[in-house]
């Protein structure tokens, strides 16, 4: 689809009776060619955050100890329609343990409501932790790279239980290594599977490249970034250390760029992920 002009043409083409032309911002154009009426903006991310928070509060206020909003939408660095709206739920002690399955059933009903809505189904992502899954005194099975992200999260209900957790450089590097390894293994499986359609294979490759790229940045001490802004760090600081073309193409694909050459993107992506894993060993 071509990009709409920044202003209406001086001599608009003839139009069918009863059909009103629209300007680039979606407002109808008047007889003078100027937009009429106010600009009405719909923010599905804000609506999702407000609605999901309300539902969790109404249905699970006694079970949920903390509800966090994570990721790029917190700082408004998200890519609209592409970035996920990430929620992290930490359950209360009484809702964990033997009651975890029951709590998950109640949460799943709420999540399903949004997954089935075309506006939110492709952007909502929810993770649930039991009360004992939050790291204490440096011991946890929860990835330390995820702890970093959680520390930057915004508390929607309760407090952010991650903000005061101390993370060692050694733990971050260990977690980053594992993160890169997992994404490489996923990419190798994607490439070897014939059942995956070409479009899905391309999308999953982008996910693997960005995952390995983020792991690389975490390993090198970077903490103040999201997937949507990782490209900036690579172009400013790491383009002489690594072939960042797969990262650049992945970022362009997330922005729905139309002029990208993806012919050799998948094999180059595999190379990129292998080099990241090799360097982080």
What does this structure look like?
- It contains 8 helices and 4 strands; from the N terminus they run αββαβαβααααα.
- It has 281 residues and is α+β, with helices and mostly antiparallel strands.
- It has 2 domains: 44-157, GMP Synthetase, Chain A, domain 3 (2-Layer Sandwich), CATH 3.30.300; 169-280.
- Strand 2 (85-91), helix 2 (100-115) and strand 3 form a beta-alpha-beta unit.
- Helix 1 runs antiparallel to helix 2 and helix 4 runs antiparallel to helix 5.
- The longest helix is centred in the middle third of the chain and has 24 residues, at 169-192.
Would you spell out the secondary-structure blueprint of this structure?
Blueprint: H1 44-60, E1 64-70, E2 85-91, H2 100-115, E3 124-129, H3 144-151, E4 154-157, H4 169-192, H5 198-219, H6 230-238, H7 245-254, H8 265-280
Parallel strand pairs: 2-3
Antiparallel strand pairs: 1-2, 1-4
């Amino acid at each position: 689809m071509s990009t709409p002009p920044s202003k209406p043409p001086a001599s608009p083409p003839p139009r069918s009776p009863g059909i009103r032309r629209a300007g680039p911002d979606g407002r109808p154009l008047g007889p003078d060619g100027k937009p009429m009426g106010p600009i009405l903006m719909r923010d599905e991310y804000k609506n999702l955050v407000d609605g999901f928070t309300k539902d969790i509060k109404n249905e699970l206020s006694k079970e949920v100890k903390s509800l966090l909003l994570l990721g790029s939408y917190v700082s408004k660095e998200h890519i609209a329609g592409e970035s996920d709206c990430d929620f992290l739920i930490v359950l209360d002690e009484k809702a964990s343990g033997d009651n975890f399955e029951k709590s998950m059933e109640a949460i799943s009903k709420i999540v399903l409501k949004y997954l089935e809505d075309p506006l939110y189904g492709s952007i909502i992502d929810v993770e649930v932790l039991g009360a004992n899954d939050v790291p204490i005194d440096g011991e946890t099975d929860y990835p330390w790279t995820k702890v970093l992200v959680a520390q930057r999260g915004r508390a929607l209900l309760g407090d952010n239980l991650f903000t005061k957790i101390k993370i060692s450089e050694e733990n971050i590097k260990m977690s980053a290594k594992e993160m890169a390894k997992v994404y490489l293994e996923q990419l190798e499986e994607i490439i070897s599977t014939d059942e995956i359609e070409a479009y899905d294979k391309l999308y999953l490759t982008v996910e693997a490249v960005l995952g390995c790229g983020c792991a690389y940045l975490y390993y090198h001490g970077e903490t103040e970034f999201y997937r949507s802004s990782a490209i900036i760090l690579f172009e400013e600081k790491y383009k002489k250390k690594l072939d960042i073309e797969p990262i650049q193409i992945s970022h362009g694909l997330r922005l729905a760029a139309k002029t990208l050459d993806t012919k050799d993107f998948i094999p180059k992506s595999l190379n990129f992920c292998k080099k990241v894993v090799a360097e982080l060993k």
